[in-house]
Amino acid sequence: MSNRYLIEQILSTLATVESDQIYADKLIETTLRNHPEWNGAERGEYVTTCYGMLSQKRKLEAAVGSNSLWAMWAAFQLLNGKALPDYDEVEDITVERIEANLADASESAFLSYPEWLHEKAKAEYGEKWPAIAKAMNSRPNTYLRCNTLKGSAAELQQKLELERTQTTLEGDDALLVDSGANIFKTKAFQDGWFEMQDVGSQRIAPLLDVRPGLRVVDACSGSGGKSLHLAALMNNKGYVLAMDIHEHKLQTLKKRAKRAGIHMIETRVIKNSKTVKRLKDKFDRVLLDVPCTGSGVFKRNPDAKWNLSEQGLLELTQLQSEILQRYSQMCKVGGKLVYATCSILPEENRAQVEAFLANNANFKLAEEMKLLPGVNTEGDGFYAAVLERAE
Ligand SMILES: C[S@@+](CC[C@H](N)C(=O)[O-])C[C@H]1O[C@@H](n2cnc3c(N)ncnc32)[C@H](O)[C@@H]1O
User: Fold this and answer.
1) Residue 156's CB: how many other CB atoms inside 10 A?
2) Is 342 annotated as catalytic?
3) Which CATH architecture has domain 143-196?
């Protein structure tokens, strides 16, 4: 296969993501599946260049002064210290030209974020913002969460090593994948020993301070990343109700729970406001892992930062405050509620919690966790607030 064909596939993927508003990760996955003949290096180059160019889109446009994908690809190569092939499409792209253009670029273009998002984040994080912005433009690590119902992270590490997957222990239950083939094809995965989960995401469930026997609701459970973790922390004893508005996500959750050997999670689709109202005062712990902009996980979904708008942010914050107000009713007196997002924007985090506390004197803020890429985590950005319900 010629190198030119690989480049054309990269550019075609980027053009389709832009024109058809398709999620990049899905299209990248499909393209890889359609090219089983690509070797490891080719697959790596395809994935790294697609994600890298998506993430650096605004910077690359500034570097070449246009949105020509060939020119942007050439700039991406040069900025990464690679030589350009002798193709007509890239003949006028030089390091000197790129450097001159970037010297005149605005800070938001240089960091490669939409202007409004850059201004918002800069106002919140000041001098720390460039480090956060750069960290969120890098490729994410792969982390696993050991299913402690099966055994310890050290045991899992040994099992994976036998399957030629090298990992590093990161805290109690997390493993960083250093190298190896497709982890989902390992026997350890099929036997339910782990789930793929960012190291920051793994810090949310422990904030609920659960123990065996409690009644817990994960009210925006999606396909259950955190429900499964809660069940493991409860040693599979007690009750976890996983709810979402999307049935297909709950179906995936059921399959994951089965693989993990978990039998205390019940799933329930939220059909209307009554589904939640009926559960008033019923739970010792409530997790609200609300829908959000995903501004903490741009490493994984770099296309999301270009699709996000101020209007979209406003709509999400309205939904978040409604969920927090209505779903908090499920928390018993003396119980705990965790409000969490994978966002770094204060409107979705601290501001939501402050507004809620101002209207709900029976809840108190017990703890806050803020994970900022490039500042205090190698993983994604997360926010969580632990609220306690008093009389
Ligand atoms: C951040 S995701 C949850 C991720 C999940 N907790 C995990 O760890 O894998 C937010 C979820 O909220 C769901 N959602 C959106 N609107 C909702 C609503 N009004 N009530 C409950 N869930 C909702 C979405 O379908 C999505 O699965």
Assistant:
1) 23
2) yes
3) 2-Layer Sandwich (3.30)
Tell whether ligand 1 has an atom less than 6 A from the beta carbon of residue 335: no
pTM (whole model) above 0.80: yes
Q: What is the CATH number of domain 201-389?
A: 3.40.50.150
Bridge partners of 268, per DSSP, are: 243
d(CA 96, ligand 1 centre) in Å? 47
- Whether the pLDDT of residue 306 is over 50: the answer is yes
pLDDT tens digits for 223-266? 999 999 999 999 999 999 999 999 999 999 999 999 999 999 99
CA distances from 126 to 141, 270, 332, 357 (A): 26, 40, 39, 27
Architecture of domain 3-136: Orthogonal Bundle (1.10)
pLDDT digits (tens, 9 = 90+) for 26-73: 999 999 999 999 998 999 999 999 999 999 999 999 999 999 999 999
Tell me, using a 6 A CB cutoff, whether residue 244 lines ligand 1: yes
Among protein residues, the one with the nearest Cα to ligand 1's atom 27 is: 222
Q: How many angstroms separate the first and last alpha carbons of the chain? A: 69
Q: Which atom of ligand 1 lies closest to the CA of 291?
A: 10
Which contiguous run of DSSP H or E holds residue 363? strand 363-371
242 lines ligand 1 (CB under 6 A): no
Contact 168, 175 (CB under 8 A): yes
The pLDDT score that the predictor gives to residue 204 is 98
Q: What are the domain boundaries of the chain?
A: 3-136, 143-196, 201-389
Q: What is the whole-number distance in angstroms between the Cα of residue 266 and the centre of ligand 1?
A: 16
Distance of CA 289 from the midpoint of ligand 1 (Å): 6
* 221 CB within 6 A, ligand 1: yes
Residue 388 in this model has a pLDDT that exceeds 70: yes
